[in-house]
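Handoff note, outgoing to incoming analyst
You'll be picking up this chain. Sequence as last confirmed:
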Amino acid sequence: MTGKDVQKQAEDRLTGESSASGVKGWLLHRAKPFLPPWIVAGGIGVASVPAALAWEGAPFAGIGLTLASGGLTAVAWFAAKPTGRQRRLHSAVTVAAASGWFTCASVAGPWSGALPDIYAMGGAALAVSWNVRQVLRWNPDATKSSDSTGLMEKIGMAKALIRGAKVEPNRVTARVELEAGTQTNADMSKALANVASALDLPTTAVRYLPDPDSARRGDLVIVPEDMLAEVVEWEGPSLPGGSIADPLVIGRYDDGSPLLLWLPGDPEAGRNSTHLLITGMTGSGKGDGALNVLTEIMSRKDVVIWFSDPKAFQDFRPLLPGLGWAVEGGAPTEGMVEAVQAVIPARTRWLGAHGYRQWVPAAAEQQNDSAHSCQSGRACGCPGMPFLVAWMEEAANTLRYLGEDAFTGIAQEARSAGISFVLSLQRASHDQISTTTRASIPSVLSFGVNGDGEAGFAMPPEVLDAGANPGIWKNRRPGYCYLCSTGIPDDRLPTPGRTWRFTIRAVSLMEAVAEWAARNGAKDDPITAGAAAAAVGRAYTDRALPTGPQHNDDDEEDDEPVSHLDEEDHGIDPTQELPPVEAGLEGLRFGSPEDERYVLSPEDARAAMEAIVDAFESDGVMVVGVKDVMEHAAEFGRSRSWVSGEFQRLLAEGRLDTTAKAGRYRIVPAMASA
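Most recent structure output, in case you need it:
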């Protein structure tokens, strides 16, 4: 009975009918719950009379009734085992006393000796004792736990109390108060597996949320039914044409509520911008999870996506037209990373000049508000700056190429520039990504991982202590995940969710989302575009989406073989003999560095080196190393040490610049270095 029920009951007592008949009815109504123990006591006394008439003075009856009395007491003791210790003892004592008196009364007669007095006093005492239990059980202020199943005793924390429970659809939240001085919230977190065992539930269905203001109080959350077992297919983005500042709906929690993710910050809500780590082993559903996040982002009007995928867009090809910049792994990704690093200070400077402490949706609009102007006293009318998502898919491949600290600077600085960095990899561990970079990525979407070690690196320790455990799923529960991010209530962090499933039926809808983004989505603003072009030149300005070969069935009959001959070779008859070698050219050798006629002078060698760098820039390869250049420098007889010296010369002249990885250099676009 709740406190409100007790209050209402007290009001009814005061305002109820006060006539003689009303008082009589009220007394009878109040007495009914307490009558059963008295009826049982009276029934035993009445039953003893015919028993005495049948068995008085019979020895065999005394033996039989004694055995029956002992048997009934044993049954009561074992039958009450699932209940609390006090209730079990009380039941056994009551049965033993009642059956013992009945045995004596049946053999000696109910009126013999002290039997009537024992019956009157003992029967009344036992009946009253059960009435007292009833009163205490109804008392809302009782300090004894209402845990009628002895749950806390079963898990070895018998002195812990459960005070009330909040029951929601498929969710029960109970307030737990541990014993002062001997039990802590850490003890309760360690006992969660035992709680799940006692309730016959999976361990992920039980969570404990410590009270931040107490070391021995918290909320025990139990979800009795797994609502994630049903596979739900993706049916499209949740808010097409909305803002990236609105929540991304990427699935649902195990109680059916939506799984929400925010990337930009919100100064009014006190929420900071965030980066996101997506992790999960092969078969865990990480790919579908990434598609959920990416399609939600792409369907918003004020965001641009730069995307790197060393797997050649195997899972993301239908979405290619909606990406602002898409590259595969290796050198193109290296150039994109350099571009991201270059645009951070440019975007931060623009936001500060227009009065934005962080990116908000208004920053993506034309700046027609004098409060957000780079001109004093008037609106500047500057083009807006969309939010930027820099997504590194299969990041383990990129990290092996660039080094584990390649993303550290971006992760530490990009949030203030209106950039969210998304890093997706199968194994989040210290040998894949530096601890500094991991500490700079506040949010994680973790699918099933291989063991507690990977779970400990991916998930915050306090969330694991509360009952989260992605290591228990591995790849047996595709799509099951935990989302830890800014803006999510603490009680949701250890709550499992599941993302929507992408099947072949989703491809046409994915293509429609990409087409909408290509036509209506945001484009890079002048500040971002200028900084990227200045950093990596044609790698950015001449970027093209790798949409793959196009095929038109209508043109099949008109296709002609394509010639791969040089223009000047078209008239050559391959069946004719070659003409004789001209006089003086008999000993000529081609491409041999040892041949003196191909050893270049220092001036010509430097010019050749500059031509090599120009060729890389022309091809859109904006980050190079000594190894890349040696393939060409060896052709004119230059060594590795010479190439390294030329790199230092070009660094001094401003044609090259250093990168985050030692031995790799960014080509400064020719116009920028002039």
